[in-house]
Structure formats: C-alpha cells, structure tokens
Amino acid sequence: xxxxxxxxxxxxxxxxxxxxxxxxxxxxxxxxxxxxxxxxxxxxxxxxxxxxxxxxxxxxxxxxxxxxxxxxxxxxxxxxxxxxxxxxxxxxxxxxxxxxxxxxxxxxxxxxxxxxxxxxxxxxxxxxxxxxxxxxxxxxxxxxxxxxxxxxxxxxxxxxxxxxxxxxxxxxxxxxxxxxxxxxxxxxxxxxxxxxxxxxxxxxxxxxxxxxxxxxxxxxxxxxxxxxxxxxxxxxxxxxxxxxxxxxxxxxxxxxxxxxxxxxxxxxxxxxxxxxxxxxxxx
Amino acid sequence: xxxxxxxxxxxxxxxxxxxxxxxxxxxxxxxxxxxxxxxxxxxxxxxxxxxxxxxxxxxxxxxxxxxxxxxxxxxxxxxxxxxxxxxxxxxxxxxxxxxxxxxxx
Lengths: 283, 105
Fold this sequence. Notes:
The complex is a heterodimer of chains A (about 280) and B (about 100). Chain A is an alpha+beta fold and about 280 residues long. Chain A is built from 7 helices and 10 strands. Chain A has helices at about 1-30, 70-85, 95-110, 130-135, 145-150, 155-165, 250-270; strands at about 35-40, 55-60, 90, 115, 125, 170-195, 200-225, 230-235, 240-245, 275-280. In chain A, strands 2, 3, 6, 7, 8 and 9 form a 6-stranded mixed sheet that branches. Chain A has a two-stranded antiparallel ribbon with strand order 1-10. A two-stranded antiparallel ribbon of chain A has the order 4-5. Mean pLDDT of chain A is about 85; it is low at about 1-10, about 20-30 and about 115-125. Chain B is built from 5 helices and no strands. The radius of gyration of chain B is 15 Å and the shape is globular. The interface of A and B includes residues 233 and 282 of A.
C-alpha cells in the first residue's frame, strides 16, 4: 500500500521544486507582470488658448483635376478639428485662393508704388512687392515650382486680417496642397514562390523591374492669427504612394490614404494628441 | 548584521506600495498610483520595478521628463530586464516625437 505512493510523492516534490525554481526565476526577472493600456498625451505645438474659433479658410490647390483638393482638404480638416480640438469650427464656403492670389497679383502689377519727395518730381521706386509681382503666377498648378509662387499670398497680412475680422478673429488655417500623379520605374524587391525538385514551396525575395504609378501629396499648412493677419506657424509635409502600374486605384482614395499619414501632424500643432499603447507594470 | 533585516523590511513595505499602485492603476487611478510608487522608491531606492511603474504612470500623465528619469533609473538598476527596456523603448519613440514637435518652428 505504501510502496505505490512513493513515486507520486517524489513527483509532487519535483513539481514543487520546479515551481519554486520558476517563482525564483520570475522574481529574479523582475516579478509578476501586468500589461496595462496607456495614453501618452503629446502637448500641442502651438498655444491656441487665445482662440475659441478656428476657420479652415481654403487652400491653394493643384496637380490633379480628378480631385477637388481644396474642397476635400477643407472638409477633412474641419471634421478632424471638430472631433479633436477644443475650438469651435466655423462653417463657411472654402475660399478659392488661386483666384484670390491671381487678383492680388494683377492688382500689385497694375498699381505701381510712387513716392513724391518734398522737393522734387514723383519718383518710381522698385519695392520687394514689385519684384514679387513681376513673377506671374501660373494659371494651372502642375508641380511644386508652380505652387511655391503662391506662397506670398500667406504673407499678405492685410488680406488675412480682413478675413479674420469677417469671422470675428478666429485662428485661420490655410496653405497649399499639391496632389499630383507620380510614375516610377525601377527594381523592387518582391517575394516570389519557388518549388524545388521535391515540390516543396519556398518564398524567396527577388528583385524585379516594375513600372509603378501613384500620387504625391505635398501640403503646407499655414496657421494665421485672425486678429493681426500674421502667420503664427507653418507645417510642410510630403508623402507619396506608388502602386503596380496595372492597379487602378482611384485618385480620391489615394488622396485620403496620404492625408491619413499627414493629418495627425497638423492636428498635433493645434491640440494635444493622445498616443495609445500598452506598457508592462512589474511587481 | 542588522542591515539585512532593515533592507528586507524596506523592500517588503515598498512591495506593498507597488502592489497597491498596480491595483489602482488597473482601475485607471493613475494619480493615486503615482503617489504609491513615489512612496515605494522612497522606501527602497534600489527597487527597479517601482521606478519602471512610476515611469509608466508619469508617461500616462504627460509628465514626460519625469517619466524618462524614472525609466532611466529603472534601467540603471536592472540593465538586463527586457520588460523595462521595452517600456523605455516605446516611451522614447513617443518622447522623441514630442521633442521634435516642440523644436519645429
């Protein structure tokens, strides 16, 4: 009766010993572990506490005719700001800033700056504004060079102050968005299935020549104080996505795919962002 | 001869604080957890786990400088602890991003 129990006791002892070793090992490695979700807040880049309202005014946009980049960017930013910032988002028709800039350019060319010295005839002096006006703005924006010409619109404090007054001095978000098609060809690494003589499947990386097409998105967000018309800050980003040349991805979905990567940075300028993750608490 | 029981006592009191802190942190009471873990590291300044937990709580509360110091202390005490190292790496990624945001004009 006693003899058969002996091995059981031995096994129990062995298990207890093993448990003790595991416990000691766990303790040596830092004790019990508890995974917890955390949300790390990243403070906003700009102090926008002086503003209760935000106007996403409109964007100088170009590069692609399939997507109304001005309209879409305004709509996207407004909806994100409504959810993620403490400011009230003003609803208004997006400004057609390409036209505004063209008009300002024409006006600057048509009205030369003349000064009359007290003891002489009227003298025409060249000003930086004249130099800028001398550079005509392209009607159709096709590339980065075209869109850069429009940057001077954001420095026109009088214009932005007037917009600010119209909407009761909000924070103004504006800028430019270039969304243009891109093509690229070259060697890319792809995973290919190969079978050996015994019919066994393997996946190996191979370099293949590929024609790819897609889009490039280059937004520049400009943050303007609606009370003064002065630029507070600006943020530029550039992202691109390329697909297999046979892939017929609609332009609008590529636009949103790229904007998804960029919008958090823009929002991070205006409001505290919370980064979700998990960490391990140790006893 | 008396040093060992005193140390063991400090560790045991600190452990109680850490345990309580974990309990409340799991219920979302991070400020109470910070209070407990600060007490724990005061009682036992060699308790790496307490510094690790404190780092997590500071991180959650957005006190990123304090979090970095707590994590670094935990790593200094236990350089080979993979869990502490992993927490610190994840924190650093976010902290670097926040610093980048601050630096941009």
